[in-house]
Specification:
The structure holds two protein chains of two kinds.
Chain A (H helix, E strand, L loop, with lengths): L7 E7 L2 E5 L8 E5 L4 E9 L2 E6 L11 E8 L1 E4 L7 E2 L26 E6 L7 E2 L4 E7 L3 E6 L6 E6 L3 E4 L3 E5 L2 E4 L2 E4 L8 E3 L10 H6 L7 E5 L6 H11 L4 E7 L3 H13 L13 E6 L5 H20 L3 E7 L1 H14 L13 H9 L3 E4 L5 E10 L9 H7 L4 E2 L4 H5 L12 E2 L2 H10 L5 H25 L6 H18 L13 H23 L4 H5 L4 H9 L5 H18 L1
Parallel strand pairs in A: 8-21, 19-24, 19-25, 20-21, 20-22, 22-24
Antiparallel strand pairs in A: 1-2, 1-6, 2-5, 3-4, 3-6, 4-5, 7-17, 9-11, 9-14, 10-13, 11-12, 13-15, 15-16, 18-23, 23-24, 25-26
Chain B lengths: L19 E3 L3 E3 L2 E5 L9 E5 L5 E10 L2 E6 L12 E4 L5 E3 L7 E4 L16 E3 L10 E2 L4 E2 L4 H6 L2 E2 L6 E3 L5 H11 L7 E10 L1 H10 L1 H5 L3 E7 L4 H21 L3 E7 L1 H14 L13 H9 L4 E2 L5 E9 L8 H9 L2 E4 L2 H5 L12 E2 L2 H4 L9 H25 L6 H18 L9 H12 L12 H7 L31
Parallel strand pairs in B: 9-16, 14-19, 14-20, 15-16, 15-17, 17-19
Antiparallel strand pairs in B: 1-7, 2-3, 3-6, 4-5, 4-7, 5-6, 8-10, 11-18, 12-13, 20-21
Classes of the chains: A alpha+beta, B alpha/beta.
């Protein structure tokens, strides 16, 4: 075997799989750069001095004998104030300053020339600081306070602190324990950033989408999976959450999805204003775009990179949501990678490690006490694209086991233009009790009961409609016919929500409850009427369009408006009877 | 001379002198293994020379030590391992780009098959292309009009969109694809069409050429034809050749380009065959695990770029084996594309052309291409109303099948009438009939007017006032609005858009 040096040689190229010999001091998962374009590649195995690496870019033209050098560190993300409002690829290289066509070597981590106004924290020199301690703040776009902290592995006495002023990423903000700390820090993306403690879930992450907030709510720090075949409106639902989630920071990981959709989402976010700060929603969003035609290996990295960015903001004491669209494309990239490196395939060709990879990824979401003692959270919502709509395929089946919420999208609902097409039959939320308690503390004591009644009415209506298909509506007793009617009102008046309507695209918790109460009140009234002897067919002829249109005809937070409409419709039913 | 005759212009900056190696260590399937090579790059093009003087082209699949594995595009039949010579060109598979492709017919590798001269140009582009930076994409907008009512009215094709046609064997999808390619236009702006036939039978290829004759003669069309008996490796290149031509015309020549790819299923079969020959681990239904990424590398080449005038719009046509929409080819396609046009065997059996299953059909970007200033202000709610009403009609039809039509309510019976009118007066059209947008919307309103006004819950009152004809009592027929071609019907006052 030849001598090991700092410059190894490529000995084999098969697509993204590159083998290198003669390189010393390389650890597994370190990044090496190969060929004249210095294409980054991740070392996946080392045997007898022969490294096997997976390139993050197209390797066309790479030859046996080309030079390989080591970066001597694993794949890392540069975390700093330039993240919010930016668009990056899976390795966190900025796309908005990149060229139109992304050939190999087109994207580089440019020397950052941007500067930010730094304001030091009121610290006395000589203070002992631990990891996560506040060093100062940077005001970035939209008045967001970017907090500069002692990194997770740093600690010691602060001997120097920068004066207020503008500075670049690589400038020293403080000297702590003898080490210069910069405005930006690097963190290996595959490693979760440490926290002081994981906390129990407590408050809901309000999405403004009724089917989620009312029926399958998600807590801050929890996880959700959104499985859905194509055409079921998965991306639309995720984009709604990007827009309306009550968090300070959104990380959107477009993982192997459509380029046009990303362009659309970026335009949308740029046009929408944050209701609390008045700035564009783009300013609170970090977009990682690795569209389906971009290199596959960077897709594997993109979900880890996205998670790392989210944890970085969480450590500042913020609430963050990560949306990964789609985790199936990520899993497919894992499969491609493992099959090329000759691993034994398990189910459907996926590696046997799929389950543990998914678990490790979802477990990075949490509500925590940060190292600095603040409360922060990362909530993770992953889209799943089951091949052929088959919910038993490995990625869907394995994901379901690790998430707190499942929002299943249903093709029949989507075909009937029932959006969002989240089915109440195969969805769940394991945090419903926690969130019921939270609603009770907010004075909405009826929340839990109303939700339970609505879910059971929906289930009963489903069962009855399959009976009706066999025997016809006329054969049902009056009470059952009212249940069917209420099922329709719940679907059209509460569950369906128009993302395109100004009044309906977001719905506050109070309006959600009001809409649900209205439908239940109408149900009770109609039931009382048929029990009083009115034929069900007469009740079915009532004009109840007020109920189905209330969501669209009252403002996003206008619970009183809904209550007024409820009184109106109840009075009308009274007079029609 | 072939179209892929190498030139120096695309070569790397260092001077590359192709070395010729004689003899192959192994021949099998489409693959050759060449020993003793030096300085050969992955995915570069190789020229394989047979003793007869015949030249074939190959791609480097793997380099390992001094061995290069070459995949020969035209296959290895007749290759004697001892007598073959291979030269490596030091560049990826590329084609010349320019206007010279227009008005001509080419094979899957870009060689002329119409008796004309080969394509020659100084500029060349690698057929694999490069990913478009997603942050430089512009959102698709404005329609591509196909002149086909059911598509224009209910699943409007938008410039920069990818909208596939899902079909099954025996349905007229190629006829529909040819009709779209022949009729599509962007209301007077620069427009070109690139059609790539993949694995077509000679009969289908001939029919396609015939339908597209007029458009080809006007110099607005490029026809790339790979027939079912061409080597499979070439089929893998065919759509890439077509898309490379289209990208150039769109983004460097400011044209709106429509690309029609038919049949993508044949392409995927070819990909599977090549993958098996390479000994790769198979995924679902033995298609390679990277089928999704590979299809995306084709489909994602459509779009618009900020600051450039042109656009690439893509209509892939595919047959669902056994009519199964969950088969990997339609399934993965559906995950990438922005909607789908689904053809139905039932409608075909009833004699409806084009047999589009409207409830399964969707153009996700329709709102970006239809409406005020694009088609007409009433277009989007009109389409939504028709689809919702068809959905209701279908439910009524199913109920009638179960319990008898006499058990239906009066309203449900009107819905059944509406459904009949919909297929008769809006969907059905002949394969050489091109309808204007106005004519199509006019027909849509006539169909919708079968329903009583109270049923039009999705229509704004202003549109109803402007276009609704009102339902007539049962059994009478409107006489003042004859059915037929209404392309020339004047628009309603104050509502005139292209």
């Amino acid at each position: 075997m030849s001598e090991l040096t700092d410059a190894g040689r490529v000995v084999r190229v098969n697509g993204p799989l590159v083998e290198v010999t003669g390189l010393r001091d390389v650890a597994a998962l370190d990044v090496v750069e190969v060929g004249p374009l210095r294409i980054p590649a991740e070392v996946v195995s080392i045997r007898d001095g022969r490294l096997t690496a997976e390139a993050f870019e197209y390797t066309g033209g790479l030859r046996v004998g080309d030079v390989a050098t080591s970066r001597h560190r694993p794949l890392s993300a540069r975390l700093g104030p330039g993240l919010l409002g930016g668009v990056f690829d899976g390795l966190l290289r900025p796309l908005d300053v990149g060229p139109t066509w992304l050939g190999p070597g087109a994207l580089v981590e440019p020397p950052s020339v941007a500067t930010w106004p730094f304001r030091p924290a009121p610290l006395d020199l000589g203070t002992l600081l631990g990891p996560g301690a506040l060093l100062g703040t940077v005001s970035v776009g939209g008045g967001f306070e970017h907090r500069v902290l002692v990194p997770p592995r740093g600690k010691g006495t602060v001997t120097w602190l920068a004066e207020p002023g503008t500075m670049g990423e690589d400038e020293t903000v403080a000297i702590v324990g003898g080490h210069s700390l910069h405005l930006a820090e690097d963190w290996p993306v595959r490693r979760a950033r440490p926290v002081r403690a994981r906390l129990r879930h407590f408050a809901p992450l309000v999405t403004g989408q009724r089917v989620i907030d009312l029926f399958f709510p998600i807590a801050h720090g929890a996880t959700a999976a959104v499985p859905g075949g194509f055409g079921t409106g998965k991306t639309m639902l995720l984009q709604q959450i990007v827009k309306w989630a009550d968090v300070e920071v959104v990380v959107f990981v477009g993982c192997g999805e459509r380029g046009n959709e990303l362009a659309d989402a970026m335009a949308d976010l740029g046009a929408l204003r944050d209701p609390t700060t008045g700035t564009s929603l783009r300013e609170r969003t970090v977009i990682l775009a690795n569209t389906s035609n971009m290199p596959v290996m960077a897709r594997v990295a993109s979900v880890y990179t996205g998670m790392t960015v989210a944890e970085y903001f969480r450590d500042m004491g913020y609430r963050v949501v990560v949306l990964a669209d789609s985790t199936s494309r990520w899993a497919e990239a894992l499969r491609e990678f493992s099959s090329r490196s000759g691993e034994l395939p398990a189910e459907e060709g996926y590696p046997a490690s799929l389950s543990s990879s998914l678990a490790a990824f979802y477990e990075r979401a949490a509500r925590v006490t940060t190292l600095g003692g603040k409360e922060g959270s990362v909530t993770l919502i992953g889209a799943v694209s089951p091949g052929g709509g088959d919910m038993t395929e490995p990625v869907t089946a394995q994901t379901e086991r690790y998430v707190r919420c499942l929002w299943s999208l249903d093709r029949d609902l989507a075909y009937a233009r029932h959006y969002p097409a989240v089915t109440w039959r195969h969805s769940f939320s394991l945090d419903d009790a926690t969130i019921a308690n939270w609603h009770a503390t907010q004075g909405r004591t009826g929340w839990v009961e109303a939700r339970a009644r609505a879910l059971s009415l929906l289930a009963e209506a489903d069962r009855l409609s399959s009976v009706v298909e066999l025997v016809g509506l006329g054969a049902l007793p009056a009470r059952e016919r009212i249940v069917l009617l209420t099922g329709r009102l719940l679907r059209e008046g509460v569950l369906q929500q128009s993302a395109l309507s100004e009044n309906d695209t977001f719905c506050s918790a109070a309006k959600q409850s009001a809409l649900l109460d209205m439908v239940l009140a109408v149900h009770d009234k109609c039931l009382a009427l048929v029990e009083g002897g009115l034929p069900a067919s007469a009740v079915e002829e009532f004009d109840l369009t007020i109920v189905t249109r209330a969501r669209d005809e009252t403002g996003p937070d206008d619970a009183e408006g809904v209550d007024r409409l409820r009184d109106e419709v109840l009075a009308r039913i009274g007079s029609q009877a | 001379m072939s179209a892929v005759e190498p030139t120096r212009s695309g070569a790397p900056s260092e001077l590359h002198i192709p070395l010729e190696y004689s003899g192959a260590a192994r021949v099998g399937g489409p693959l050759l293994a060449i020993r003793g090579v030096e300085g050969v790059g992955w995915d570069e093009i190789a020229r394989v020379r047979l003793p007869s003087g015949e030249v074939r082209y190959g791609l480097v699949l793997e380099v390992s030590g001094d061995v290069a594995i070459v995949e020969v595009l035209q296959g290895t039949s007749g290759v004697d391992p001892d007598l073959v010579t291979v030269a490596f060109e030091g560049r990826p598979f590329d084609i010349p780009v320019g206007d010279g492709w227009l008005g001509r017919v080419w094979n899957g590798m870009g060689e002329p098959i119409d008796g004309g001269p080969p394509m020659l140009a100084r500029e060349r582009r690698a057929v694999n292309g490069s990913p478009l930076n997603p942050s430089q994409r512009d959102v698709p907008s404005k329609p591509v009009l196909t002149g086909i009512s059911v598509i224009d009215a209910l699943a409007t094709l938008v410039r920069g969109q990818k909208l596939p046609v899902f079909s099954s064997a025996g349905l007229p999808h190629l006829e529909l694809a040819a009709q779209i390619a022949a009729q599509a236009n962007v209301a007077g702006e620069n427009f070109k069409v690139v059609v790539a036939g993949m694995g077509l039978t000679h009969t289908d290829a001939a029919a396609m050429r015939q339908v597209l004759e007029t458009r080809a003669a006007s110099g607005d069309l490029v026809l790339v034809l790979d027939t079912a008996d061409d080597p499979v490796v070439q089929r893998v290149l065919t759509p890439r050749v077509a898309l490379t031509i289209a990208e150039y015309l769109a983004f460097e020549r400011d044209q709106h380009v429509l690309v029609v790819l038919a049949d993508v299923t044949s392409y995927c079969e070819a990909l599977r065959e090549v993958s098996a020959a390479r000994g790769e681990v198979p995924g679902r239904r033995a298609y390679p695990g990277y089928l999704y990424s590979d299809l995306a590398s084709l489909y994602e080449r459509c779009g618009r770029i900020r600051g450039r005038a042109g656009s690439v719009t893509l209509v892939p046509v595919l047959t669902m084996p056994g009519g199964d929409i969950t088969h990997p080819v339609p399934d993965l396609t559906g995950y990438i594309t922005e909607g789908q046009i689904v053809l139905s065997a039932d409608l075909h059996a009833q004699g409806v052309y084009p047999p589009v299953d409207v409830l399964a059909t969707l153009s996700r970007l329709m709102r970006k291409g239809a409406g005020e200033g694009r088609t007409r202000a009433d277009h989007v709610p009109l389409a939504a109303q028709i689809i919702a009403s068809l959905s209701r009609a279908r439910a009524a039809r199913e109920l009638a099948d179960l319990i008898g039509a006499e058990a239906l309510t009066e309203t449900d019976r009107i819905y059944l009438e509406f459904e009949d009118a919909f297929y008769r007066d809006l969907v059905n059209q002949s394969s050489d009939e091109s309808r204007s947008m106005e004519g199509t919307l006019d027909r849509a309103w006539r169909v919708l007017s079968v329903l009583p006004e109270r049923e039009l819950t999705m229509m704004p009152a202003a549109s109803i006032a402007a276009y609704y004809h009102g339902a007539l009592p049962k059994g009478t027929r409107r006489t003042n609005a004859p059915l037929g071609d209404h392309a020339s019907t004047p628009a309603a006052p104050g509502e005139s858009h292209g």
